[in-house]
Amino acid sequence: MTTEDLATLTADKVIDARGTACPGPLLEAKKGIGAVKVGQVIEVKSNDKGSRKDLSTWATKVGHEYLGLIEADGHDRLFVLRKK
Asked: Which terminus of the chain has fewer Cβ atoms in its 10 Å neighbourhood, N or C?
């Protein structure tokens, strides 16, 4: 997805993991993905730069789709589509 697409995307669940260090945002994403249905999107807000790699790697490994990220005021907004 493009940055413009992500900026207009409304996530089905938003997880605010700002202020937590690795692996906090990843653990929050793992818990949060179970709260949405297949085909829905979670957004993880994180100011831990390691989340960029962690979330994309995890999503691919477990069969979800990492949609990308956009940078916001001092944090990233990372998006994952639940596939299974």
From this structure: C
Question: Can you give the pLDDT at residue 39?
Answer: 97
Give the domain range for residue 33: 3-81
Domain count, the chain: 1
Are 12 and 23 within 8 A, CB to CB? no
In the chain, the percentage of residues whose pLDDT exceeds 70 is 100
List the CATH number of the domain containing 25: 3.30.110.40
pLDDT tier at 1 (50, 70, 90 boundaries)? confident
In angstroms, rounded to a whole number, what is the distance separating the alpha carbons of residues 46 and 62?
20
Q: What Cα–Cα distance (Å) separates residue 60 from each residue in 4, 20, 49, 78?
A: 22, 23, 18, 14
- Choose the catalytic residue: 1, 9, 22, 70: 22
